[in-house]
Design a protein that fits this description.
The complex is a heterodimer of chains A (413) and B (315). Chain A has 413 residues and is an alpha/beta fold. Chain A has two domains: 221 residues, Rossmann fold, CATH 3.40.50; 131 residues, Rossmann fold, CATH 3.40.50. Chain A is 43% helix and 19% strand. In chain A, the strands form three sheets. Chain A has a seven-stranded mixed sheet with strand order 7-6-8-9-10-14-15. A five-stranded parallel sheet of chain A has the order 2-1-3-4-5, sandwiched between helices. In chain A, helix 2 crosses helix 11 and helix 5 runs parallel beside helix 6. In chain B, helix 3 packs antiparallel against helix 4 and helix 9 runs parallel beside helix 14. Chain B has 315 residues and is an all-alpha fold. Chain B starts with a helix and ends in an 11-residue tail after the last helix. Chain B is globular, with a radius of gyration of 21 Å. Classes of the chains: A alpha/beta (413), B mainly alpha (315). Chains A and B meet through helix 2, strand 7, helix 7 and helix 8 of A and helix 1, strand 2, helix 9 and helix 10 of B.
Chain lengths: 413, 315
């Protein structure tokens, strides 16, 4: 019995190793590791569909290096441990490119995992493309050659956001509310130091960290914000943590200005409209639908015709298009060659303007926009989530002004 | 400050009443059948999703009636055709059965309604601020939730204290075997209690769905805290469950609004310790540990008063 079992295992493993590469030759598989269940699912599903749409776009043009692109969904439940299991599963299935975005704790674990894996398995390297996890540490102290980030990190965003906030004299009392994990911590500490440097007269009247994706009723927090006398709230909350926060604010009739990272995420616009906060919610992103740029507006129309959501990840577009460009430049889909080609690569970004992938830390730099959500004029053709309201550009930060120094000491293979 | 206290009290009482709606069923089932129903919060979720679907078709008010009946019928069915058979194999099997059932219900809900939150809205009739207190609006819908919970609490109390069936249920709480020996159809009582208990959880789901968030992980967000209520309140004690629910509702809401920490009370740590692990404990605020306070209560109650606040039997 034991013998047959051993034989079967042996046979299966032989089959496994011979069958996998053959399948991988035909298509370029990209492992999409993000929450497809639990509190982060609403965000993860939108991301998945966006990537599939982008894969279709590439395939319509003949794929990457003549090979078809396929997105393989892997559910990590926003859990770092689960993510590593999924990453291993992906690698075992012959996948050489991983992408993930939700949760810096997950990103950090994945970056470590991929770095160690590549050390132990030369010739079978795997690349990790990060499209949304913005903890600065990933491109500073814990940077890795195998990790590339397309979203501006949290410090870059806060730098731009506070540069704008210092020009608004009506801001006097600021309340910080963030999710209790590495990213929320990064937002709050950056906000504190940058506001203190740029507008020492602003008072921080509250500084809150709440459990990640576990709160269903934010009323107690809203009561606290109200009692603090804040006129402005800064939050890095995303997914349901943002939508429910705004919902509770609407219920309580809290009227403050909101400076956010992710107000545009699923459920966010609806909650803002319900709260009737006309142009009182600001977000900082690398792009919005209403930027006056014909090619991105065409893309937006096509996406909306296919799905019932708008583009939340212009950075994902940049990521996929740059993967194709890097493969073309390297004339290969070998991860090491693609990584070499990506380093320092300049690129015309999705929403117009120049961006570049900094060689020193693999952080992508691009123009950044501050926009507010509310009533539209003729200049803003797109609304969000059928609310009738849309995003309007308030300020644009050009690529050179977004460049911050890095402490990364990159170890190259 | 007064404003914060009043609003937090209102929020805390509301959350507490919602917990009670669920815990009342759970505690009665627990003490009668001797089984901790892990799937109880799943019926709360079923209630919310049924409520969402039925309110799409017929409006919110029919949903408030039909959804709990439907969930209660499923609950009764589970007891009659599931638990009762599993019962022969002892309590561990029963426990595992309800544990598995919770996963099955979650998966089924995901298959039917997907994993993202569904758009379950507050009915237009109740979508206005009930009153404004210290310039904070208090939504009419939340007052409605409070009202429903109170009405059900009173109804439950009347049924248990004033009717014959209530008398038997009460007797079965303390002396389940004796009730059987007296010739009552214990099986039917169990089924009834299970059905009513799950229906109550479903009522909580129907009314909490629009105010909180209706999605497939809502059971696992609320489930664990129900067990805290049952244990802290005392096995089989409805007044105990009531007090524990309110207590936990208030403690959680107020804890969130307190910024105090050890460093606030005793001053910051000396520089020698500022960057050690001690600093993490020293600087953490009560607001940050609010979510674990109920579980600390659970642990303490189990150590120092295992029968719970108002319980009469040892767990």
């Amino acid at each position: 019995m034991r013998k047959t079992l051993a034989m079967t295992v042996l046979a299966l493993s032989v089959l496994g190793t011979t069958a996998m590469p053959a399948a991988a030759e035909e298509t370029v598989k990209i492992g999409y590791i993000d929450p497809l269940s639990g509190g982060g699912a609403s965000v993860g599903e939108v991301g998945l569909k966006t990537f599939q749409f982008l894969a279709d776009e590439l395939n319509a043009k003949g794929g990457i290096q003549g090979r078809k692109v396929e997105i393989v969904p892997l559910d990590n439940k926003t859990n770092p441990q689960e993510s590593l299991i999924q990453a291993q599963k992906a690698i075992d299935a012959g996948i050489r490119f991983l992408t993930q975005g939700n949760g810096s704790a997950v990103a950090s674990a994945l970056s470590d995992f991929v770095t160690k894996y590549n050390e132990r398995n030369p010739g079978k390297e795997v690349l990790y493309f990060n499209y949304a996890a913005v903890d600065p540490v990933l491109t500073n102290a814990k940077c890795s050659f195998w990790h590339f980030r397309w979203d501006a990190n949290s410090d870059i965003k806060m730098e731009a956001l506070t540069n704008y906030m210092k020009t608004v004299p009506s801001i006097k009392n600021v309340y910080l509310i963030n999710q209790d994990y590495s990213f929320g911590e990064a937002v709050r500490s950056a906000a504190r130091t940058m506001l203190a440097a740029k507008r020492p007269d602003i008072k921080i009247v509250g500084d809150e960290l709440h459990p990640l994706l576990k709160i269903t009723d934010f009323s107690p927090y809203i009561a606290k914000i109200k009692a603090s006398g804040a006129d402005t709230v800064i939050t890095g909350n995303w997914g349901q943590d943002f939508a429910l926060l705004l919902k509770a604010a609407a219920d309580a009739g809290l009227k403050v200005n909101w400076y956010t990272y992710y107000a545009g995420g699923t459920g966010g616009p609806t909650a803002i409209k319900q709260a009737n906060l006309d142009h009182q919610v600001f977000q900082i992103t690398e792009g919005i639908a209403n930027i006056d740029n014909p090619s991105s507006q065409e893309f937006e129309k096509a996406l909306r015709a296919k799905y019932d959501f708008s583009l939340f990840y212009p950075r994902a577009v940049n990521e996929m298009r740059m993967l194709a460009a890097a493969a073309d430049k390297a004339k290969s889909l070998d991860p090491v060659k693609v990584a070499d080609a990506l380093e320092g690569m300049e690129f015309d970004v999705f929403d117009g303007g120049k961006g570049f992938m900094r060689k020193d830390d693999h952080q992508f730099f691009q123009p950044i926009y501050i926009s507010s959500f509310g009533d539209r004029t003729a200049k803003e053709p797109f609304d969000e989530e059928k609310t009738g309201w849309g995003w309007k550009v308030v300020a644009k930060v050009d690529t050179p002004s977004t460049v911050l120094p890095t402490t990364c000491k990159m170890e190259r293979p | 400050m007064l404003e914060l206290i009043v609003i937090s009290t209102l929020n805390g009482v509301l959350f507490g009443m919602l917990l009670f709606l669920m815990a009342s069923g759970l505690t009665v089932i627990f003490s009668m059948l001797g089984v901790l129903n892990f799937a109880h919060a799943s019926f709360y979720m079923l209630g919310a999703f049924f409520g969402f679907q039925i309110s799409r078709w017929f409006g919110f008010w029919p949903a408030l009636l039909i959804a709990p009946l439907l969930a209660g019928a499923i609950g009764a069915g589970v007891e009659r055709y599931g638990l009762r058979r599993v019962h022969r194999n002892g309590h561990v099997a029963e426990l595992l059965f309800t544990f598995g059932l919770a996963f099955v219900i979650e998966e089924v809900v995901q298959i039917i309604w997907g994993r993202s939150p569904v758009d379950y809205r507050v009915p237009a009739l109740l979508d206005f601020p009930a009153f404004t207190i210290f310039s904070t609006n208090y939504p009419a819908y939340k007052m409605f939730m409070l009202l429903v919970s109170i009405v059900i609490f009173i109804g439950l109390l009347l049924v248990l204290k004033k009717t014959r069936i209530g008398l038997i249920v009460q007797a079965a709480l303390t002396h389940p075997h004796m009730v059987g020996h007296l010739g009552h159809n214990v099986g039917r009582i169990f089924m009834l209690v299970f059905g009513v208990g799950t229906a109550l959880a479903a009522v909580a789901g129907v009314i909490a769905g629009p105010a909180l968030v209706t999605q497939s992980n809502m059971a696992e967000l609320l489930g664990p805290i129900l067990f805290v209520v049952v244990v802290v309140g005392g096995l089989g004690s409805l007044p105990g469950a009531f007090i524990a629910s309110l207590l936990i509702g208030l403690v959680q809401t107020f804890a969130v609004s307190i910024n105090g920490s050890l460093s606030g009370a005793f001053g910051p740590l000396s520089a020698a310790y500022a960057s050690t692990w001690l600093a993490d404990i020293w600087d953490v605020t009560i607001a940050q540990i609010a979510p674990i306070i109920p579980y600390m209560m659970l642990v303490l109650v189990l150590i120092f008063r295992p029968m719970g606040l108002l319980g009469t039997r040892d767990t």
